[in-house]
Design brief:
The protein folds into 2 domains: 206 residues, Isopropylmalate Dehydrogenase (3-Layer(aba) Sandwich), CATH 3.40.718; 141 residues, Isopropylmalate Dehydrogenase (3-Layer(aba) Sandwich). It contains 11 helices and 12 strands. A 10-stranded mixed beta sheet has the order 2-1-3-12-11-4-5-10-8-9, with helices on both faces. Strands 6-7 form a two-stranded antiparallel sheet. The chain is globular and about 55 Å long.
């Protein structure tokens, strides 16, 4: 397995270092290549996503992405590299699971369309300098295919799909998303399908998350809802995500660059290590079975090991168990109320995995 690691900015290199150590311990045959992206790369090269990085990402079996520190003000020539990667590799499905280890009734997934909406970056300032305009792009094709991913995921889980939108106000753009999503969902007669306005959905994600199984929504709404959702699983330091396409897969922690703690060895590495678990689960073929015979999917999965003790599924299960143990029993970094370092948590993870291998 060949993995492209893009550490990025802030705490990205620290948490990606932990993720690499864990993956190397589980699958020593894995090869790695590191590539640049982010604000520091922009300052060095004049681009936040160098062509060499994009080439390395295309050539890899999967990508582990750390974090980038994008400026909140206009910088000529700067574009978010993670948004560019999602679009360049057509990573159209953003999968963000939420589960509370000690509250098993909370277990749901936000499926977020990943390539359009306001994130296409079509913004302009009017000549008077006092009016800013952003264009929102919603297409039937993108809405249908993300809903199909969500429906197939719901089939594998508890069979419930919630379509989230704001079509009562955004009647044209969200109206198209709603119409497209409902049409696709109608093809899955075994699913229980409902719909919620995004503000109502946000309230329920915060107050009654146990009502959800799979939510599907547009890019920006999905970004916001999944960040709210991570409260239930311990916060941003534990939140992992997958960006999936037909031939490429990228895994990233949700927490961002956190420049205020960068270099202090206190960043929680569990979200990044959780990305390794998602990667292994994806490579094991956990993804929906309908893709097995799809020729377009030929570059997505790697043949699993013939040795079941060395299979991606087995390694993913080992890692999930270790993640649960450390989340519950520690050591804990400051975001979880402890005083452990990034390295302390990584070493604890490695020790648990080693004990499992020694049995």
């Amino acid at each position: 397995m060949h993995i492209c690691i893009i550490p990025g900015d802030g705490i990205g290199p620290e948490v990606m270092g932990a993720a690499r150590r864990v993956l190397a311990a589980l699958a020593p045959e894995t090869t790695f290549v590191e590539a640049e992206a982010g604000w520091e790369a922009f300052q060095r090269h004049g681009t936040a996503l160098p062509e060499a990085t994009l080439a390395a990402a295309r050539a890899a079996d999967a990508i582990l992405f750390g974090a980038v520190a994008s400026p909140s003000h206009v910088v000529p020539g700067y574009r978010s590299p993670i948004v560019q990667l999602r679009r360049a590799l057509d990573l159209y499905a953003n999968i963000r699971p939420t589960f509370a280890i000690q509250r098993p009734e909370i277990d749901f997934v936000v499926v977020r369309e990943n390539t359009e909406d306001l994130y296409v970056g079509r913004e302009r300032l009017e000549d008077d300098g006092d009016t800013a305009i952003a264009e929102r792009l919603i297409t039937r094709r993108a809405s249908e295919r993300i809903t199909r991913v969500a429906c197939e995921l719901a089939q594998q889980r508890r069979g419930k799909l919630t379509i989230v939108h704001k079509a009562n106000v955004l009647r044209v753009s969200d109206g198209l998303f709603r119409q497209s999503a409902l049409a696709v969902a109608a093809q899955y007669a075994e699913l229980v399908v409902d719909e919620l306005l995004v503000d109502v959905a946000a309230m329920h994600v915060a107050q009654s998350p146990q009502r959800f199984d799979v939510l599907v929504t547009t890019n920006m709404f999905g970004d916001i809802l999944s960040d709210i959702a991570c409260i239930h699983s311990g916060g941003l330091g534990l939140a992992s995500s997958a960006n999936l396409g037909e031939t490429h897969a990228l895994f990233e922690p949700v927490h961002g660059a956190a420049p205020d703690i960068a270099g202090k060895d206190v960043a929680n590495p569990l979200a990044a290590i959780g990305c390794v678990a998602m990667l292994l689960e994806q490579k094991s073929g956990v993804r929906s079975q309908e893709l097995e015979d799809d020729e377009q999917d030929s570059g997505f999965r790697i043949q699993d090991s013939e040795d079941p003790t060395r299979s991606f599924a087995n390694m993913g299960a080992q890692l999930r168990a270790a993640l649960c143990a450390v989340t519950i029993h520690g050591p804990h970094t400051p975001d979880l109320g402890g005083n452990a370092t990034t390295n302390d948590v990584t070493e604890a993870m490695l020790a648990i995995l080693q004990r499992g291998n020694d049995r």
